[in-house]
Each structure stands twice: as structure tokens, then as C-alpha cells.
Structure to design on (283 residues):
């Protein structure tokens, strides 16, 4: 199957109207990545470099000139250069007069300089209009584009105000809190100092009745958490269920057996056996 490179596709629909030219000072990683995206959007890109003849690895379709020549071709100039190399801009004061300078730089340390890079740039070129942009985007993010998995968001078609989702969420939290509270209570009554202070009926009620209630709440808590995912084929990796599904096997088995034992037909017979009833025999 033929694979199409995403970065080679235009990001916008081609228009008959000619797009304006954008100038980028600097041919480093960020400058090249930003220039590629500008070209894909239909803009004309010209790079400014101190050595135009030696500059390589630029996006196809971009033009590279000297700083002064590149600045004359655009009213928007993106400064993709480190602050310590801003000094050459003072020689281009007349060419940059009235231009829009986009500062994309970030300092390596907090309070590294007495003023921000944008303020320093405005001080060097007082006739230009300095703005700040693109300083929160990395060259990797620009190069990866749609291939960057961390940038992908799954479309949620369900209504965020759905009452069913709200009930499931609230039930999950409520069952977990109640189950944990009863579990702590069972642990406290299991301490010798506490169990010796209660009579046999109280201890049996806590350990039996509340024990099964705790098991029901905790199991229901996990069932609500799983919801529709228990039988979903997409969640079965290597054809094995998830860990929380395997953890439900024993508690669900215990609850099913307990449900069978409390049925009247079974419970009455067990009660009679406990009271000493024996099946009639000839001997």
C-alpha cells in the first residue's frame, strides 16, 4: 500500500489569490520547521542568513538571501535567532523601520536578563513593531505535525451533560467510598481489643452481614468502573481480559454461591441441619 507523507500535504486549500511573503531570520531547526509549515499554508517564504551560499537543508520552494535583501521582501520578519546574536540588527535599522518583528525566543533561565527578549529587541530596533509568538511551540511539534501522538484528541460524540454518564460517575464514587468505609470497619472489629469487647451476636453480624455487604459494594464499584468495557473486543489484549476483570472472578463466585444458599429452599434445609435434623434411615 502506498503511504502518503502528511508533511507533504498542504494545510489549506490552494487559492488563486497570491499569499504574502514571510521572512525568517535564521536557518536553524525552528526556522526550517516553521518555514516548511508556512510553505504548506501557501505563503511565500524567504530566509535571511549571514551565509546564503552555504545554507542547506532548507524546505523546497524557499528562497535564501542575506539579511538585508530578505528583509526588503516582507513586512513580517520572524526572528529565529538566539538573543546573543541580535547585535547585527542594529545595522538593519533603516531596512527594518516599520516592519513587524516576531520574537520567538525563550531564555534558558528565569530572570537571566534584566529585560525580556522582546523588550531588548524593541530597544535595538526602535522603529519596528515587536510582537511575541511561537515561543510555546517546539521544532519537533512543527516537524511531526499530525504524526505527533500527543497532539491527537479523540472526538467525543456523546453529550457531556448526559445523565447516564453522570449517574455512572457518581455511582462509581459513592460505591467506592461506602465499600472502603465498611472495609475499614471490618478491619477495626477484627482487632482483638475490639472483638473481645463485643458479644458473639454483634461480632457475627459485623463479620458476616457487613462482610457480605462490603463485598457487594466493592464488586459493584468495579463493575460500574468497567461498564461496557468488560466484553469489548478492543480491550482484550492478547485475547486476555484486563486485571480488574480477573479480580472479579473470586468475589463474583462467592456472591453467586451465597445467593444460592440464601434461597428459601436451600436455607431452610441448612437451618434444619444446623438444628440437628437428620435424614430418616433404617438403621
Amino acid at each position: 500500500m502506498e503511504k502518503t507523507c502528511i508533511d507533504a500535504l498542504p494545510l489549506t486549500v490552494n487559492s488563486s489569490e497570491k499569499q504574502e511573503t514571510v521572512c525568517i531570520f535564521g536557518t536553524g531547526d525552528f526556522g526550517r520547521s516553521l518555514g516548511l509549515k508556512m510553505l504548506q499554508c501557501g505563503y511565500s517564504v524567504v530566509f535571511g542568513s549571514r551565509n546564503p551560499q552555504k545554507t542547506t537543508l532548507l524546505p523546497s520552494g524557499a528562497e535564501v538571501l542575506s539579511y538585508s535583501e530578505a528583509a526588503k521582501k516582507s513586512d513580517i520578519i520572524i526572528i529565529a535567532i538566539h538573543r546573543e546574536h541580535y547585535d547585527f540588527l542594529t545595522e538593519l535599522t533603516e531596512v527594518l523601520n516599520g516592519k513587524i518583528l516576531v520574537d520567538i525566543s525563550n531564555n534558558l533561565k528565569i530572570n537571566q536578563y534584566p529585560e525580556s527578549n522582546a523588550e531588548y529587541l524593541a530597544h535595538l530596533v526602535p522603529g519596528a513593531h515587536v510582537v511575541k509568538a511561537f515561543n510555546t511551540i517546539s521544532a519537533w511539534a512543527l516537524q511531526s505535525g499530525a504524526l505527533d501522538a500527543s497532539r491527537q484528541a479523540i472526538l467525543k460524540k456523546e453529550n457531556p451533560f448526559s445523565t447516564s454518564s453522570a449517574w455512572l460517575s457518581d455511582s462509581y464514587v459513592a460505591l467506592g467510598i461506602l465499600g472502603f468505609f465498611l472495609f475499614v470497619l471490618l478491619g477495626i472489629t477484627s482487632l482483638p481489643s475490639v472483638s473481645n469487647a463485643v458479644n458473639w451476636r454483634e461480632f457475627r453480624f459485623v463479620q458476616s452481614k457487613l462482610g457480605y455487604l462490603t463485598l457487594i459494594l466493592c464488586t459493584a464499584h468495579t463493575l460500574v468502573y468497567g461498564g461496557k468495557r468488560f466484553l469489548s473486543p478492543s480491550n482484550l489484549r492478547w485475547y486476555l481480559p484486563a486485571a480488574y476483570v480477573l479480580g472479579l472472578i473470586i468475589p463474583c463466585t462467592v456472591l453467586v454461591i451465597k445467593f444460592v444458599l440464601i434461597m428459601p429452599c436451600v436455607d431452610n434445609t441448612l437451618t434444619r441441619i444446623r438444628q440437628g435434623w437428620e435424614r430418616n434411615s433404617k438403621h
In short: The first strand starts at residue 21 and ends at 25. Strands lie at 21-25, 44-48, 63-65, 76-79, 100-103, 129-132. The CA atoms of residues 90 and 153 lie 45 Å apart.
